[in-house]
Amino acid sequence: MMTHSSSYLSSIKRLRLCLQLFASHYRHAPLQASAILLGIMLAVTLLIGVYATNENAKQSYGNVSELMSQQARLSISHRTEDSIDESVYFALANAGFNTIASIEGIATDEQGRLWRVNSSDVVAAITSSMQLQQSGTSSSITATHIPLAELLAGKPKVLMSTSQRERMSKVTNNTDRIILNGMPVEFVAIDDSWGLGSAILADISLAQPMLNMQGKLSYIAVFDSPSADTNISDANESETDAQLIARLTHTLTQAGIVPTKLNFTTQTSEGESLTALTASFHLNLDAMSMLAFVVGLFIAYNGVRYSLMKRQKLLVQIMQQGLDRRTIMLALSIEIICLVFIGCVLGFIVGLQLSQWLQPMVAMTLEQLYGAKLLPGNWQWQWFAQALVLTLSAAFAACIPMLINLINTPLAQGAQKQPQSRQLSIIHWRQFIIAALLLLVCTIAFAFTEQYRHSLILLGVLSVAIPLLLPQCLHWAVNLLSPFMPKGLWHYVIAETKEIIAPLALAMMAMLLALCANIAMNTLVGSFEITLKKWLDARLHADLYIRPNPNQIDTLTLLLKQDPKVEAIYEQWTVDSHLNRAETPQTQVPIHLVSRDHLSLTETTVFKTTADDFWTTFTAGESLMISEPLSIKYQLDIGDKVQLSQLDQHIMTIGGIYYDYGNPQGEAIITQSLWQQSQLPAKPISLAVSYQGDITPLQNSISQQLNLSSAYMYSQQRIKTEAINMFNKTFSITVVLNSLTLLVAAIGLFSACIMLTQARQAPLARLYALGVSRNQLRMMVLVQMLFIVFLTCFLALPTGALLGYLLIHKVTLQAFGWSIAMVWDWAAYAQVVIIAVVSCLLAVCLPLYWQTRKPLISSLQQEAL
């Protein structure tokens, strides 16, 4: 027993001694520890930043709640129109249902900017929230600084979160007032804990005249009825959604309201639909964060490898002194765990801050694309645990083979450092073989993938395979160039370039990965922008597009017909519907059912493919056309038989598939005659007008005579401008992440160059002693680095274009249903190459200048270390 205890204490002492030795090493070489921590911190920062943003977004979908209130049980909206009569709200409120009336609309300021305005009965919302807080199921919030009396009096004040007010300060020049739809309103900033996010909230008494919706509501939120009676409260909790809808329907029927015209949407279905609709967007963000994570791990691994290589002689010496290999391996493992833990803590803190910066961009994109509102989120310790486990797993998977190889070094070789060029050449050749096999597998697999998730996984495998090609390709390039170099210093430069490929390989692989991602994303964004502009030019044929309230359609049509400058009026009808295959009627696909006049359809529809007799069968009402996203997502094709819920399950044939880049949800179009024959709304939901001359007088006339805000009238140029702005905002988050990834790679290159120049002090000093001037040394090292960087860029251009091609023709097509014509953006490619070269110059010049300024004897002494 005593022997076992003393052996245990001896092992602990040896382990502590080894750890103290490693700590002393890092005290004398802080650059090595800094490089490792920097790589881990950057990797975790981008991973946590995007992960926290995505998780907060998904949590918002699952907790869709009314602004400043609790989570609604369900919402009531009109089945075919944008608004419902407020009599529905009064009927339910008088019957004792816990409801809140809401209005959503667009307002314009004096500069023509659009603002989304939300409104509700603010007092009822706050009361509901306070009741939820008293029940102990809500965080503590108070009504401090909310001017309830002024809101009740109908004074023009709107509420917004403090963070949103700060973001708007640049637009409003730090004033607390703005004119919306001709009405001056004042901002009131409240605490972010109320969950307003990026919304502008007005009381319903103010919003109805501002948005010209007197007597109308957008929807009604229905909550569980609060009660002090425990039995009643338990009954509310046990009541199913179907039973609640049945009670609502009965109440409305007794009040003389036809409930079949209303749509009842439960909270669960709304959250699930948002999650499904935005899944591809979040998956793309996850892929970008994982890419940045891999680039950061490259940097960390490069630092670990350099640190171990510098300690190779030290490790052999302490093993010769009698320290066992198991203790050294355990000490090195503890060292890696400590470094990973510290790096993860730093990265987690910075990542949460990055999430706070990214979330407004994501919120704006999701709100404009999908109508999803993001609520303020809170960080969770599980995110740190997941990042720590992932980083530790990746670190040990990368370092264990190197540690084992280092520990198994024969003790007889401890007297001198052994050349490792042959071993590294074998490793680089194996990497090349593995990369070639992965490329072959991906090439075959891409031909069979139909789901964007599978394609994204293959794209990730391809992104890992491409950097593995780099070291061997660099060796081949240097070997090809070597015979053409003159004897002397330049021949030495090329010969030494072979030696620095190995220590620079990981940094250059990270740079190659970032360059490929940047080129691919630039290709996607540039191609999509050109495709979108061409589609808008074909799709928009009228001069003015108007979307008034349904009760103003007849008056507006009469007004337009009386104007002699109006050349033509085009109409569009839209309702929410469901589509299913004729052979599987139980599968209901939510879509927008649309119809336009025949002239609009023939002039503006850009077809992907059509049946031979399409227009004949379409005009006869026997076939319909569907959007490309709907076709791809549900694998529908020409000739398939489908049914529409709004047409009493009438079986129709898909006769045409058209391009659509403006609607994230599927869309189907039927002919105008079939629409009018069916039990569908007779009034169009929007009008388009062809007009002679300037349309501004027409817009002013409509605004004055119908009291219609300019926010509901869009000129052709305004639609194009806003579409491109939305497009830029949609891709802004991915462009930012892509730029951050490139920045991480540049930092990795900088740290690698510092370590490399530090390791090359003695060789450079020997050359200086032999008569090579300092300027020649600097030029020599600079040429070597630029040569490697240019070769890396040369490989990045075709491989990045390949990734862009797959992003366009596989991932984007399958995820969003958008066909995009690939366009080569040479200016963007040149910009990426310039960024890489500038990063190289900064990474080389500063550390090289520092090292070549050192005294000769100091540099020569590095030979003995």
Automatic annotation (TrEMBL):
<keyword id="KW-1133">Transmembrane helix</keyword>
<feature type="transmembrane region" description="Helical">
    <location>
        <begin position="383"/>
        <end position="408"/>
    </location>
</feature>
<dbReference type="GO" id="GO:0098797">
    <property type="term" value="C:plasma membrane protein complex"/>
</dbReference>
<keyword id="KW-0812">Transmembrane</keyword>
<keyword id="KW-0472">Membrane</keyword>
<feature type="transmembrane region" description="Helical">
    <location>
        <begin position="828"/>
        <end position="850"/>
    </location>
</feature>
<feature type="transmembrane region" description="Helical">
    <location>
        <begin position="287"/>
        <end position="308"/>
    </location>
</feature>
<comment type="similarity">
    <text>Belongs to the ABC-4 integral membrane protein family. LolC/E subfamily.</text>
</comment>
<protein>
    <recommendedName>
        <fullName>ABC3 transporter permease C-terminal domain-containing protein</fullName>
    </recommendedName>
</protein>
<dbReference type="GO" id="GO:0044874">
    <property type="term" value="P:lipoprotein localization to outer membrane"/>
</dbReference>
<dbReference type="InterPro" id="IPR003838">
    <property type="entry name" value="ABC3_permease_C"/>
</dbReference>
<feature type="domain" description="ABC3 transporter permease C-terminal">
    <location>
        <begin position="738"/>
        <end position="852"/>
    </location>
</feature>
<dbReference type="Pfam" id="PF02687">
    <property type="entry name" value="FtsX"/>
</dbReference>
<dbReference type="InterPro" id="IPR051447">
    <property type="entry name" value="Lipoprotein-release_system"/>
</dbReference>
<feature type="transmembrane region" description="Helical">
    <location>
        <begin position="777"/>
        <end position="808"/>
    </location>
</feature>
<feature type="transmembrane region" description="Helical">
    <location>
        <begin position="500"/>
        <end position="521"/>
    </location>
</feature>
<feature type="transmembrane region" description="Helical">
    <location>
        <begin position="33"/>
        <end position="52"/>
    </location>
</feature>
<keyword id="KW-1003">Cell membrane</keyword>
<feature type="transmembrane region" description="Helical">
    <location>
        <begin position="429"/>
        <end position="449"/>
    </location>
</feature>
<feature type="transmembrane region" description="Helical">
    <location>
        <begin position="735"/>
        <end position="756"/>
    </location>
</feature>
<feature type="transmembrane region" description="Helical">
    <location>
        <begin position="329"/>
        <end position="354"/>
    </location>
</feature>
<feature type="transmembrane region" description="Helical">
    <location>
        <begin position="455"/>
        <end position="479"/>
    </location>
</feature>
<feature type="domain" description="ABC3 transporter permease C-terminal">
    <location>
        <begin position="288"/>
        <end position="410"/>
    </location>
</feature>
